[in-house]
Write a structure and sequence with these properties.
Elements lengths: L6 E5 L4 H12 L3 E6 L2 H11 L3 E5 L5 H15 L4 E4 L16 H29 L2 E6 L12 H22 L3 E8 L5 H10 L5 H11 L14 H12 L10 E4 L11 H11 L1
Parallel strand pairs: 1-2, 1-4, 2-3, 4-5, 5-6, 6-7
Family: Belongs to the short-chain dehydrogenases/reductases (SDR) family.
InterPro entries: NAD(P)-bd_dom_sf, SDR_fam
Pfam families: adh_short_C2 (PF13561)
Length: 277
Amino acid sequence: MKLQDKVAIVTGGASGIGEAIAIKFAAHGAFVIVGDVQDELGQKVCAAIGPRATFVHCDVADEAGVEALVNTAVARHGRLDIMMNNAGVGEPGGRDVRDLDIRAFDRVMSVNVAGVALGMKHAARHMVPRGSGVIINTASNVTGAAGIAPLAYTASKHAVVGLTRTAAVQLGRYGIRANAISPGAIPTPAFVRYFRKAVPGMDENGARAVASKATTLRYGEDLESALSVEDVANAAVFLASEDSRFVSGHELMLDGASTVTDKSFDAIGMMLATASS
């Protein structure tokens, strides 16, 4: 029970990585506020968790919505201990700068970058007076290897790491830590939807297999060793707890060393390159 009676917000908590984190936080004793635009899924997650969970509709690209999300947590529980900025989107195509769709680029930036910045802003306004708090931002291991993911997504996740490090410095004097988690590919619903759009003819099982093969501990065909949402949730608990009390300004890579090997992202990179050629 590493987070006993802590109050945590998880954006993008209705499915995938965010859902796993919300469930894991609650299992460790936290009160969880799930923010998402997927109302039905978010409510199901909170119902499954029980009375310690609350769902709030929130589009993180809308500052008023983010402020309301944070205010709801504080009004309901009296404080905010953990801000998990997890909500994010990708965009189909656009791997090559020549194919850049500026409208898609702006949408990705508004959610993945502005959404994180807004989450930190409004969380910090409540954490600073109390002199404590933890901010965790979901980035991606595309920050460790170029040319793997589309342009806007890659740029946005680099920006998330920059925001995290800056917040760690600015807020550290008030007892607030800020860190980023950078997972490798996981066959979440969002990943599967994206990959099926990016690769014509790709079915759901194929997309899941690609994600599983892209991030394994042994770079083989053993899909049982592939990264899972549970792995990310466990990392989030570590960063949110006192076990990491002196960890701040850190980007925690969860990719089985795939970004530091010449085999990094073979499955994804080759397939996307073929699809775009």
